[in-house]
């Protein structure tokens, strides 16, 4: 282990609350000079989708996946007490009241702090997404790249 | 990394089974002389709520949150097979049969073993809870305190 | 920390997608010469159940648990978009289309790469399972064994 502290997060979940937790930890760690990577896999990838629909040539299952999954951070549901979308609204209201940052701002802040945002290429393929559907400034990589980051630090989380 | 082994758990989940897993690992690690911290955030905070209702002056959304969320370890649901509360009863029955400790006892044991129990202050604010609603012996802190614990150990889990 | 890199995963979840993520990380880490352990606890134990029913002398609750829980990797549901079993079929179809390995093959591959598969003895007792119901090549151990593996490595995940 060198001098540089590292935080490496696998973000598997696409729940608004869990994605928020991941980005709060990431932003905190970056503020304390950790080298931070968030590796977005499976449902976590949805946090990185652009919120406008992207034209792409796809097969049937890929179209269904793309349609059923939330497009971007602002559309995600809660892991608990989702109540058909009412839960996320309550959380967002209460966050606004307490001047807490909404998720899209937390993601912007992470980018500004040079948190490395990685999209799992295997998931991109599996869900039939294209690179054009993913927001700018995201790298595409696999489990080997994750391990290279994780094995040299010790704050390694799976969220 | 010094000589002292450390286990630092972020407890995000408020599911009975996951909270139980967190406390079993924490108690095990404490028994093997690890310095152990459980950082309770989001739904995980509910495990630390006192089980009697506390009078507090709150806004509407805060009252709703406080009402809808389970009050204390014994009221939590299961992550799987909850079956409207029947699942937790089954688990508790089978635990009693096998002389396994119920969750409130696991929490008491953690306190006796000097496991540091931390409540995320941001979550306390967000859910509109007051310090009086949280059990005795709990510290209040944020992501900076979490990182200070986590970056010097290597058993770091997000549950 | 010695020369040998270590990846130690607590697999708590029994969701098809999360179990798949655990085994993909484990196989990746093994390919990069990590010493890898997957410690299966709670619902994660279901991934190790043999898929044929095993005759065993059990009490009523144990029989109910054994009946309600999925028997083996191929029967698991998804954490999201399960749609009464339709989700796993979609995932499996799309995996086949992209030549991705189905879960039972990922488990076989892990065994071939000497990933240590551990079943949590406390969970085995709690769910009233017998060792005969668990696939060959699995060790039975507790939290002490987990800690012994985890405290000497730094890629420690709870899935």
Automatic annotation (TrEMBL), chains A, B, C:
It comes from the Bacteria. Pfam families: DrsE_2. SUPFAM superfamilies: DsrEFH-like. This is Putative sulfide reductase.
